[in-house]
């Protein structure tokens, strides 16, 4: 799914109106009616108090449509106009009049004294600002946002939590709605996926409002939200005539005394994802551990307790390096020589990233499309600190371009950056915040590249499957008991799930919904 920026959304709105010969007011009716349907299917006519706060632009117009449907369906609703400007849009005015024709005259909020009483057990619909936000809310509008947040009432944001920009950082964090849920139009927004906005964006979903898909594709958006739909075309099915040589040979390099588990997990992961052959190269102290834990793997050894010589004989297709490796001097010196001489594709993780950060002159030796899988702290050592999450993404983009590498920034929404392209993962949950989870990811990406996946596709698929295992596991296990080994236990289910139709999708198709304008 594409992620559009604010300008692209406005362009797609306009293009859809002209290409598809649909009026702006009908587009709004369609979009906002879907929001009403969403709420109606959950509330089923309950008498709970609903407050709809409408700005004076088209986001406010959506709010007025929702309020109209709520009135017409007998809900206990109050609608207000947040009059932060007199420049009301045409679509706002048409829907304002449609509401008045029903005999409902929304009160105007012009200052703090006009704020209505909102109770914790009510529902607020936030239709104050949407994609048209150009500066931070101030004055009584900001006060209203704070007032709503202060009640801790459940807030359903329409398109955006008001005060949040799609593609830049919030500076005044006291001027943004803290939404319980957001129904956003057509595409996810980059801001929803960044950790700095966690207080404003809780859960969200995309409402398809039918913007012109060809037009959107021709905009050539650079940001992508990775869901099952993006994974299906990446997945390579197996050929009947293939043999284990077809699926490559992964070599996992890592480990040190006390950290043999990391390299063991990565090795198991490379095997389990389907690498034809897998070898591990690790300090001698880990030899028995690895051979017993992963009998399918071949093992070569280096010095006794830490890597030093990197003199393996394995003819690998791809090397995954770093898990449990440590950064002692002899390991670092050997790593320098290894990187300078290596010609094979690489996946670089953990301490191998730290060694690159210590000696950045090595970056120029990395083969094109090397995959680096840092967590935020490792990233900071590599590229320096950042002021906010948007600047972080810019810095990673520059780094990716400067060194021709793919960066997999691990987090709640793992972000894969390949030059200007950003791929943001949709799967995963806090169960993955567990020791060894990153080592498994390194093994998965390595094992996929071994099988002939392009490094960027291996990163996208590996990250998606890694997250999906935890999502599937949570249907029958707890966050706490899920461990890195559980990722491998659920890997098969995650792969099979690629080809299952989602229950949600089936449900949407079966649901009876209110038609626009009813
Ligand atoms: N046909 C369309 O264009 C559609 C628009 N839709 C809705 O329209 C929204 C965008 O509407 P608009 O472009 O009218 O903009 P908004 O309704 O988001 O904002 C209203 C206006 O407020 C002004 N403004 C921005 N920041 C401000 C601030 N801090 N203080 C005071 N005033 C400020 C701007 O001039 C802006 O035009 C979308 O988010 C979506 O909800 C949907 O109904 C789908 C169809
Ligand atoms: K809003």
Automatic annotation (TrEMBL):
Which superkingdom heads the taxonomic lineage of this protein's source? Bacteria
Positions bound to (6S)-NADPHX:
58-62, 130-136, 159, 262, 324, 375, 439
One GO molecular function term of this record is: ATP binding
Which residue range or ranges hold the YjeF C-terminal domain? 227-498
Sites binding K(+) sit at 59, 126, 162
Q: Reaction(s) catalyzed by this protein? A: (6S)-NADPHX + ADP = AMP + phosphate + NADPH + H(+); (6R)-NADHX = (6S)-NADHX; (6R)-NADPHX = (6S)-NADPHX; (6S)-NADHX + ADP = AMP + phosphate + NADH + H(+)
Q: Which cofactor does it need?
A: K(+); Mg(2+)
Family matches, as CDD domains: YXKO-related
Q: Which residues cross the membrane?
A: none
Cite the binding residues for AMP.
410-414, 438
How is the cofactor bound here? Binds 1 potassium ion per subunit.
Q: Which family does the similarity line name? A: Belongs to the NnrD/CARKD family. In the C-terminal section; belongs to the NnrD/CARKD family.
Could you identify this protein by its name? Bifunctional NAD(P)H-hydrate repair enzyme
- Organism of origin is Lutibacter flavus
